[in-house]
Design goal:
This is tRNA(Met) cytidine acetyltransferase TmcA. With 671 residues, the chain is an alpha/beta fold. It contains 26 helices and 21 strands.
Amino acid sequence: MNTDITFLQKLHGIAKQQYCRFGIVASGSTQWETYFCQDSIDYWPTYQRIFCFGFDGGERCQNLMTHQGQQVLGQECHLLIWNLSEPWDANSFSAAIGTLSGGGVLIFVGQLQESHAANQWLNDKLAQLLIVTPDNHSPLPVVPCSDSDESSFTEQLMAIDAIKHVVTGHRKRPLILTAERGRGKTSALGIASADLMYANNKINIAVTAPSKRALQPLYSHLLRCLPQASQEKDTVYFGNATLRFVALDCLLRTDEKWDLVLVDEAAAFPVPMLQSLVERCHRTIFSTTINGYEGCGRGFTLTFQNWLMAHRPGTRHMHMSLPIRWQKNDPLEKWYREALLLNHHLPNLMSHSYHKIRLLTPKQLVAEPNLLQQLFTLLVSAHYQTSPNDVFQILNDSAIQIVATFREDDIVGCALLVAEGELSNELIQDICLGKRRPKGQLGTITLANQLGITCAARQRSLRIMRIAVHPDVQGLGIGSEMIKFVNEHLVFDFLSTSFGCTPSLLAFWKKSGFVAIKLGSKRDQSSGCHSAFMVHAQSCSWLEDALEQFRTQLLFELNDAFCNTDVDILKLLVAESLLTIEITVSARTVSLVEYYALGGSNYESVAANLHQVVLRRLVCCQSVSGLLFSKVVQKLSWSECAVRYKCSGKKQVEKALREEVLSWLRDLQCK
């Protein structure tokens, strides 16, 4: 046996003994690296799984491309080989490294192909791993003896019992389950579901998450515990018991009764949607990952958790702190968390003062890792969709600009912007025809392809991709000040932004001078919200045309694509879209509406008149109830309004309409 494999054999022995994982960088010629990997595969016990990414390890390995890490979620391996010569995908790597069990080894081969700040960062981190070359290798590591792993499984068993108690205990006592990655949280949901379905042959369980793919561990553990169960698409059957995946927005729209609702990665969803679910479903579990790229933003841990404790005093919270797949002081996990900036700990700010706003460069961030860590801590706390790839995109993409607000040496606010536009006529034509969608051009694609405003694609624009402010200093104008800084110090023709639309976010961007020119017809899978596209383009000649198109499209879709959209969002958008036109209300219209309010005519005879009156009031003061807006402006049916606003039927709905109209009828002229 050659010295390289002798080293691997000894390292493997230490890993097994301590139930930990190690990382190796094999550095030599391509031929030598291939031989080293093949010798490692030949040495590895045949009963243990091997995953190879970007490397063909032969028949006994599962061979995948470097972007296919998501395909092994929920699985386990003991040897992981990763080829750095193939395109680097940090999201995929994060999924893959999570499958490597205690006693396992990660082997990097190949060289990063490009020279830029992102690869400089990664190479610096790779140098901290064990190095094996044709002539030498790092000394064998010394790892402190690990504690028994029994406590980890005891913690998981406690979580399983807590999950089951939500069903067997009193109603309206939700459970919040939090954990870092690798703690067996989602697996515990699957095992507990299996126990519940076995014990109650008629139980009906709904599970929701921002991504069905992330629920693979839940399904795999459920089916492992119930081998007699069957699965059809997203539903598992065991006798008359079922577990079914249901998108959260569908859960909120249907009246189906569930014995238990599981919400995995609950921090992904807007707090108002979670609150609505609590009001509708009385046995709920909210599970989420913290200190990971799944986010958690203190919007969940503070806003929602505090609301839940106030409205459901019997709420329980359990945190799973001990890893299941490896020991708690695992060397590879420590390296991974540092390399991909997973050590997120937002400091508490004692002072609310801040000093300056400035631009940061990728070179600065690599040279000062503390700044890069702070930047990503803020982004992860505020944005669920922040991912490992974002680290490398920011360090690598020359189109991205970074604005940061500092309080002494601490970053308390940041904004990421990407330069767009200045496209050729040929490319713009292809975009309009749907032939091409150039990467990093979301704003110009929206304007040219969906709104037909091609001149905007020729201009230079900046799209604000992300904006985040430390929770302790939110509401103090830091976000607005960063936008003001961008307006004053950067060169562009207009600004744009796209986000999952909520009333508070819409109000923030509107206050900063942005206007909405498009609302996505479908809900975003992660946020559960419609995407709003807004621009700050007061000096652009095309803005008036864009606003007119948006008004026409919005009013047309109110009863179709937007029939289930948050009514507060629609009221804000409709009111803003009508500001540029004059809505007149004649004396005759006022009289007809007044007769209706007093009970003198039926709704259908004055619907058009009432529509004008409501639109006029929206523009003047926006003081219109959701019920009145839904019936008169959205034109929902009587039965739809009754269900949505908890009325007994048409009679009660119409009574509420007449009373509201009568209460503000004399104020129609908005004096």
